[in-house]
Structure formats: structure tokens, C-alpha cells
Write a structure and sequence with these properties.
The complex is a heterodimer. Chain A is of the alpha+beta class. Chain A is built from 3 helices and 5 strands, in the order βαβααβββ. Chain A has one domain: Beta-grasp domain (Ubiquitin-like (UB roll)). Chain B is an alpha+beta fold. Classes of the chains: A alpha+beta, B alpha+beta.
Chain lengths: 86, 183
């Protein structure tokens, strides 16, 4: 119930080693920036993915989101590099 | 004659967004965009093609199913609001593509050429910087490399003065973000 769904794309996915996972961060994790710090502390893989936060973009419930965007249980939060389509 | 014109003018604008592995047919998509209406005076198209850069074997494109379609739909809506368009079509391929293969199609239809040409450029500029797609290059020697975002693409998109944080992929630095809407 308190879980968040985290999805990863491109090299962020490769560094973390999974395309998606369910996590249950503590209630102090209230925004995207806080979630990044909490995920980075999980293990070396997550730390490597977020080593340079300037290169990682985020979306909350499939809308682009900055570091101050709130996150809540039940949200789908995505992390990915700057986009390169077209 | 007057009746026919009135009937054609009542055809609502058409917006088509598609993301998938299948190839697209420029002629068929153009015909579909203009079918049943005689109010189109200009149809602009852009086709992005996989270019054979140094020893490239293929490109592999991935996207964020759901968000990608929604993001393209939103900017298509923005184009429809900014220009007097009668319709637009965006088809973006994903999966593995080899040099020479088409990647993306943008079509815009308007009564006059300026709106069609400008909105077509707007759509492809935006797609390159705001739609969640990621390209990985595979070299003929088997090496793999993620394509990096280009500052020139950001500049091209910025000239349209896109507003709205929800259109913008902000980076995750809190404190040292530059001011204003630009990156």
C-alpha cells in the first residue's frame, strides 16, 4: 500500500540493473530530490545511476517533474537520461 | 458548390499520434490527413531518417509507453492551438532501425503554407527535446553507445519559447538550476 513504483529507462536502467521496482521509502521522503537521495543510498548500483544527478531527468505519474515535485505512496516515478528522440 | 464547401469546412481537425515498430508510408499518411476535406492549402512534412554515421550498424530506440504518447499528444495540441491547423500527424518508430530507415514522421495541414511549415518545424524541434525517447547506437564492431542529448537541439526547441514546467524535463539539481524557463 505504501509502495512506490519506480521505472528506469536507457542507461539509468542499465546502471540500476532493473527496469522497474517497488520501493517503500520512509515518510521523510517527500519529493523527487529526496527520493533520489534515498535511492542512491540503497546500494552501489543505484548510487552509480544517480552519481551525476544533472544527467538524470524524472517524471511523476508520467509527467516531467523537477526535484521539488512531491512523491507519494502509489505514485509511478520514472528516472531517465535527457531524451534523444526524433 | 456552396453546400460542398460548407460540408468540407465542417470536417473537424485531425490529430494522429502513433508510436510503434512498424514502418510508415508518407503518401498514405498524407492522404489520410487530408481525406474528405478541401480546406487544406498546404501540407508540410518532415521525415527523420537513420543516418549512416561512422560505422553505425543500427540504432535502437526505446520509449516510455504511455508517457511518450501523452507527451506527443500534448505538444500536438499546443501546435493546433498556436497555428490555424486542420490537422497534424506524428508517427515515431521504436526498436531497431538501420541506416536509411525512416524514424519519425511529422505532417501538418493548414489553409496556408506558413502555418504548415512553421508548425511542422515546431513539432520536430519539440519532439527531439521533450518526448521521452532514447537512442542507442550499435557499431559495426558490436560496440554500444547511448546517444547524448545535444545543446543544439535545446536551442532549436527554445526558439519556440515553450512555456510550462510540465513540458520541460528539468534536471534534478535543486539549488543550481538556472533561472527562467530555459535550461
Amino acid at each position: 500500500m505504501s509502495a512506490m513504483r519506480i521505472v528506469y529507462f536507457a542507461w539509468v536502467r542499465q546502471r540500476v540493473g532493473t527496469a522497474e521496482e517497488e520501493v517503500s521509502p520512509p515518510p521523510e521522503v517527500r519529493d523527487v530530490g529526496g527520493l533520489v537521495r534515498w535511492l542512491s543510498a540503497l546500494d552501489e548500483r543505484h548510487a552509480a545511476a544517480f552519481a551525476n544527478p544533472r544527467l538524470v531527468r524524472a517524471a511523476v505519474n508520467q509527467d516531467f517533474a523537477g526535484p521539488d515535485h512531491p512523491v507519494r505512496p502509489g505514485d509511478e516515478v520514472a528516472f531517465f537520461p535527457p531524451v534523444t528522440g526524433g | 458548390m456552396a453546400e460542398a464547401r460548407a460540408a468540407a469546412a465542417s470536417v473537424p481537425p485531425r490529430v494522429t499520434v502513433r508510436v510503434g515498430e512498424e514502418a510508415f508510408d508518407l503518401a498514405a499518411e498524407s492522404a489520410a490527413l487530408c481525406a474528405g476535406r478541401d480546406d487544406v492549402g498546404g501540407l508540410a512534412s518532415f521525415v527523420g531518417i537513420c543516418r549512416a554515421d561512422d560505422a553505425l550498424e543500427s540504432l535502437t530506440l526505446e520509449h516510455y509507453p504511455g508517457m511518450t504518447e501523452r507527451a506527443i499528444g500534448r505538444i500536438a495540441g499546443e501546435a493546433m492551438a498556436r497555428w490555424p491547423l486542420l490537422g497534424c500527424t506524428v508517427v515515431h518508430r521504436v526498436g531497431r532501425l538501420r541506416p536509411g530507415e525512416p524514424i519519425v514522421l511529422v505532417l501538418t495541414a493548414a489553409p496556408h503554407r506558413a502555418a504548415a511549415l512553421e508548425s511542422c518545424a515546431f513539432l520536430i524541434d519539440w519532439l527531439k527535446t521533450r518526448a521521452p525517447f532514447w537512442k542507442r547506437e550499435t557499431g559495426r564492431d558490436g560496440t554500444e553507445r547511448w546517444v547524448e542529448a545535444r545543446a543544439a537541439d535545446d536551442d532549436a526547441a527554445a526558439r519556440w519559447d515553450l512555456r510550462g514546467q510540465d513540458l520541460h524535463g528539468q534536471d534534478l539539481r535543486g539549488q543550481d538550476r538556472p533561472g527562467g524557463a530555459g535550461r
